[in-house]
Amino acid sequence: MKKIVILLFIAAMVTACSSGPGFVVKGKISGSDSIIFYLQKRDAGKTITLDSAVSKKGYFTMKGGPVAYPQLIQLVAGNTRKRTSFYLENSKINITGSLDSLIKAVITGSKTQDEYKLFIDSNKPLSDKYSKTYIEYQAASQAGNSARVAELEKQADSIQKEMTSLQRNFVINNPASYVTPSILGSLSYEMEAGEIEAMIAKLDTAIAETPQILGLIERVSVMKAVAVGQKAPDFTMSDPEGNPVALSSKIGSKLLLIDFWAAWCGPCRQENPNVVKVYTEFHKEGFDVFAVSLDQKKEDWVKAIADDKLSWTHVSDLNYWGNAAAKTYAVNSIPANFLLDESGTIIGRNLRGEDLYNKVKELLAVKK
Asked: What is the pLDDT of residues 106-117, one digit of tens each?
């Protein structure tokens, strides 16, 4: 009998350790009677619903878990676009607000959410300043005031640098915060592999094992394979006529630019005239372009090629951000480019405008 009691006690302890406390989300959202609310998160490009509840006179409760770690999710009101984001963790979380301004709901009970709010609040003066500058930039651009546009571009760049500095400081000063993976993920778009790796090395062990950081570690590995000094990985894609074209078939020019772009990408279209200028001036001297489009619709892609007068080789798998070559080259923002020498070695990355022109001019002058 004693043995049975001990076994039951051990079983109870194992169950308690494996299940643990979950989360409880209580809502008080005015104007939301009979609305279905959903707790949702994004995972591998898909929306996953964690729980749902129907509000009664604005009140609802959702329970679940335990969640393995605090994660950023959304509370969504029915089939509307009304929603708010917060960090869900194993605690009692209260959400108070109005259906008409759900994004401004007050959220309490989540330690990680409190950390996130402090970061957002500290960043707000800069984000407000950037928004104001962008509105002024649009007005100056529409008015054709090029001098003011140039001035505002400098202001915007300066504000962005301040925002980046604030984000970096948060990551450095909060190595054990579950907010850190999201911020570091955002920063990583403008960071080199070694820099990302160094920041990850300083994180608390639990944070370093979250899916976001593990994903960054994988990305670092890919980035190292396409760093300056490495041989450019080969790939094959179809041109607009459906003919397969391999990157290796284009290598041999003195300089070859692999240019990742898309018809729907505003900054790409703004950069295209700069690439056209370099191509027009230096093509006969050995400069060529191999363009990879992240478009989804062939007609948009082909039209943009014609409209922007891009008279070089174009390929795409019309798979948007799932583009196979973009994944191979760790491209997660466009425009992006890689400059190769005649042996197919990467000698430059993300050269734009005058930087691209000057680099090509310099290298071709050396090769004469």
From this structure: 999 999 999 999
- Quote the CA–CA distance of 25 and 37 in Å, as a whole number: 11
Tens-place pLDDT, residues 205-242 = 999 999 999 999 999 999 999 999 999 999 999 999 99
Look at the pTM and tell me if it is higher than 0.90: no
Where in the sequence is the domain holding 189, given as residue range(s)? 114-225
Residue 84, domain CATH: 2.60.40
* Predicted local confidence at residue 332, as pLDDT: 87
Sheet holding 83-88, edge to edge: 46-54, 36-43, 71-77, 83-88
Q: What is the 3-state secondary structure (H, E, C) of 172-200?
A: HHCCCCCCHHHHHHHHHHHCCHHHHHHHH
CATH of the domain at 292: 3.40.30.10
Tell me if 247 is assigned to some domain: yes
Q: 140: helix, coil or strand?
A: helix
Backbone dihedral angles phi then psi of residue 232, each to the nearest 5 degrees: -70, 125
* 3-state percent breakdown (helix, strand, coil) of the chain, nearest 5: 50, 25, 25
The residues facing 238 across adjacent strands are: 244, 316
Same domain, 241 and 126: no
